[in-house]
Specification:
Strand content: 15-25%
Structural class: alpha/beta
Shape: globular
Order of helices and strands: EHEHHEEEEHEHEHEEHHEEEHH
Length: 374
């Protein structure tokens, strides 16, 4: 890549997104100190709609669509995402060219100051926990039936302010990685281990997306790939894709690589947590047939020519196998009911919004006609 070329980097506008994007640029500068990078900040649908839970908005790619449009239109060279925001199926012509070393993927409890030092299990009955994640709600309702859950939207700054000032929430559930990237690790009151709450697919990992035909940028980004993180995330994403789940469905995972063996656990729950299917599978990643697979193939949207294609295939197939085992145990029906319920909620939200708009128009007409001067 020419040293005088300016590489344009797409990012969401939030403080956390810009911290993550600058982190990726700093890593690249360690390898390419003479290349210039320019951040192009873009607002996404998920950033603009802050009065509804993500699952009730009724659109996919809430935090990625506008960034991917900028990629497609060649307005940026690559974009930085939280991997958990990226659907398991990417738009045509797009690939994930790098997944960096994963930060702690677990969820964390941030307590209202009046509850400092407590754990979720110690909070008073009917304490309100702020989260818009169906995955978190389903698991925590199952574990702590004495708690109540309420949507909370906005960026991290906004959500923490609501916790501290509004006196509505006893605690929030947030991704530990995001809190640490913001420098707010001192607000973590409890880290939820997998026995309490398994995490979202890809949580804690940063992904860099680019155009599939931009081999120059793909080569540039390949320097950032962390092998273990990438293999774990391939298995998690293939698990989610086989289930036909998404970030707005109650699906959770946990993965680990030990001594070249990949272990993947997956859980599918009903919205209220009353139904749950869970399995764990494992497979050796040892490469006994290095020439079996061809380089260049995307694995659930991820390209990594530098890694063993055999190991990537094993990771992808392990996720598929786990999903099929859960489907045999009833996951398909559980997700079908959950999706139907979510669809009904979306329709109700749309009807409510439409009625509010009609009322607003009627008021505006009355004001314009002078009928409301009484």
């Amino acid at each position: 890549m020419s040293e005088d070329k300016v590489v344009r980097v797409g990012s969401r506008k939030s403080q956390l997104a810009l911290i993550q994007t600058n982190h990726i640029i700093d890593l690249l500068k360690e390898h390419f100190p003479d290349i210039k990078f320019e951040i192009v900040s873009i607002s996404t649908t998920g950033d603009k709609i802050l009065d509804k839970a993500l699952s009730k908005i009724g659109e996919k790619n809430l935090f990625t669509k506008e960034l991917e449009v900028a990629l497609e239109e060649n307005k940026v060279d690559f974009v930085v995402h939280s991997l958990k925001d990226l659907p398991s199926t990417l738009p045509p012509g797009m690939v994930i060219a790098a997944i960096c070393k994963r930060d702690d993927p677990h969820d964390a409890v941030v307590l209202h100051p009046k509850h400092a030092g407590k754990l979720l299990e110690n909070l008073p009955d009917d304490s309100v926990i702020g989260t818009s994640s169906l995955r978190r709600i389903a698991q925590l309702q199952r574990k702590y039936p004495h708690l109540k859950f309420k949507d909370v939207r906005g960026n991290l700054n906004t959500r923490l302010r609501k916790l501290d000032e509004d006196d509505i929430y006893s605690a929030l559930i947030l991704a530990k990685a995001g809190l640490e990237r913001m420098g707010w690790q001192d607000r973590v009151g409890q880290v939820l281990d997998p026995s309490i709450c398994m995490y979202a697919v890809g949580q804690g990992a940063l992904a860099v997306e680019t155009r599939q035909d931009d081999q120059q940028t793909i080569k540039l980004l390949s320097k950032l790939c962390d092998q273990d993180t990438l293999l774990r995330c391939v298995s998690e994403r293939s698990f989610l894709r086989q289930l036909e789940g998404g970030c707005s469905t109650p699906v959770a995972v946990h993965s680990v690589i030990t001594d070249s063996e990949l272990t993947l656990s997956g859980t599918v729950l009903s919205l209220d947590g009353s139904q749950c299917v869970h399995k764990t599978v494992k497979k050796s990643l040892s490469d006994n047939d290095k020439n079996q697979e061809e380089n260049g193939k995307p694995y659930v949207g991820i390209v990594a020519d530098e890694l063993s294609q055999h190991a990537l295939t094993v990771a992808e197939n392990l996720g598929i196998a786990l999903a099929k085992e859960l489907q045999d145990d009833g996951a398909t029906e559980i997700l079908k009911v959950a999706k139907a319920t979510i669809a009904e909620q979306i329709i109700e939200q749309q009807k409510k919004r439409k009625a509010e708009n009609v009322d607003d128009v009627a008021v505006a007409k009355k004001q314009a006609a002078g009928d409301d001067k009484e």
